[in-house]
Design brief:
binds coenzyme A; 5 helices; globular; Aminopeptidase; single chain; 178 residues; 34% strand; alpha+beta
């Protein structure tokens, strides 16, 4: 039985795994995911994206949460800790990615549950994200209690250049706030 673990990576650890992070993002885009890049994927731009993420982790403004199966990184998600003085209670979720080979076995859900735990631990009780409308991620978020707050038509293009709508979603972790 494979062993799955969910861990927060520091910047140095993450940087040592740059090629694997890039593979997960590139394979996801080539499989149709709307996660910032298009086909043909520019590998240098993907590497540069991850280096920016690692720098952000290094200064403490973002958590990089990773799923590992038998020592191999198979998925990741980021929790950005909004730094504004008027948003100490807010977090933003970015780039939930599970490598295509490891999907449909609960890893995406486990990563999102870890986001909630880490957000709660930091008193980040309002979480926000956006995702392509009608995709597996929207279903996952809905199942986990996220609420759709609006649709943006033509928000971004898919990996092949077709315009797609996004849905903005939110989740309160403190039920006393409404
Ligand atoms: C969205 C994404 C992260 C989901 O990851 P995942 O690990 O497949 O998610 P889960 O396994 O938790 O759930 C996916 C499906 O598998 C099902 N599932 C979970 N465990 C399962 C199991 N043991 N056996 C069979 N099915 C299972 C879930 O019920 C869910 O079904 P649904 O899609 O019909 O609702 C993944 O598809 C992905 O990386 N997509 C590309 C990137 C992307 O779009 N990210 C979102 C950016 S906002």
């Amino acid at each position: 039985m494979p062993t799955t673990s969910i861990d927060i990576f520091d910047a140095d650890t993450a940087a040592r795994h740059l090629p694997r992070f890039s593979d997960i993002l590139i394979d996801s885009v080539e499989g149709g995911a709307l996660v910032g890049h298009v086909i043909p994927v520019n590998a240098a731009a993907v590497a540069s994206y991850w280096e920016g993420v690692f720098a952000s982790v290094g200064v403490g403004e973002r958590l990089l949460i990773c799923a590992t199966v038998d020592g191999e990184i198979v998925g990741t998600v980021q929790l950005y800790l909004s730094p504004e003085p008027n948003a100490p209670h807010r977090g933003e979720v970015y780039k939930l990615l599970v490598h295509p080979t490891f999907r449909n076995r609960g890893i995406g859900e486990a990563l999102m549950k870890a986001v909630e735990v880490e957000a709660r631990n930091r008193a980040r009780t309002l979480l926000l994200l956006d995702t392509v409308q009608g995709g597996p991620a929207e279903r996952l978020y809905g199942r986990l209690g996220w609420q759709a707050i609006g649709v943006v038509p033509r928000h971004f293009v898919d990996p092949w250049g077709e315009l797609r709508s996004s849905v903005y979603m939110m989740r309160f972790l403190d039920s006393e706030i409404s």
